[in-house]
Amino acid sequence: MDRAAAGPPAPRADPAPDQPGPPRHPAANRIHAVAADHGYDRSASYWTGPGRGWLAELDLPAASREIVTDCLAVIDGLAPLTDRIDGELHAHAKADPRVKVLRTLPGVGEFTALVMLAEIGDISRFGSARKLASWAGLTPTVRGSDLTVRHGHISKQGSAWLRWVLNQAAQTAKRSPGFAATYAAIAQRRGKKIATIAIARKLLTRAYHLLADMQATDTTTPLRRP
What we know:
- The chain has helices at residues 26-37, 49-57, 62-95, 97-102, 110-120, 129-135, 160-173, 180-190, 192-217; strands at 140-144, 149-154.
- The chain folds into 2 domains: 26-95, no CATH class; 99-217, no CATH class.
- The two termini are 21 Å apart.
- By secondary structure, the chain is mostly helical.
- The radius of gyration is 20 Å and the shape is globular.
- It contains 9 helices and 2 strands.
- It has a two-stranded antiparallel sheet.
- The longest helix is centred in the middle third of the chain and has 34 residues, at 62-95.
- Helices cover 58% and strands 5% of the residues.
């Protein structure tokens, strides 16, 4: 999934790059910021045993070390709650066949699939993939006169959560064989940010067709919101 911008706050550690999960807790973001402020970075997780050991060995001023220690205490204190919620989400995802279908899309993990289903609801509400993309705020605004038509930025109407998880997924999808060429072509013409949004929109389009086809052929697919 595409991590183009900070998402809505929720507790979580770093997800696997091809299976994006809930956004990190602000305390985790704060630890990343403290490390970066002092020139430290780590490509692997900060929260595993080796990651915790790496954090403990950083040469930090006393005030910065205290911030890291306090933030780790907050994360550890929330661990039982987040573990329980993770378990409930996993059970819900396993019980919904639509999650398995959506996870065939590059960059879409359990969390992303669940957010998509919760925000979209019954796919038959939308007459076409374009109408879904427009509802999600992933289509450009159009301004025109008698002589000219101008396409602006995306409208950002609809669900901010849906746009966020799609942008996260697009960060992975844009490197996959099915999307890489399209991303590169758009990025060259219009820049990486617009290209990433275009991939997010393509992911949503494919998700629409997967869900619509599934609903048309499987009468057992639930129409409720998860």
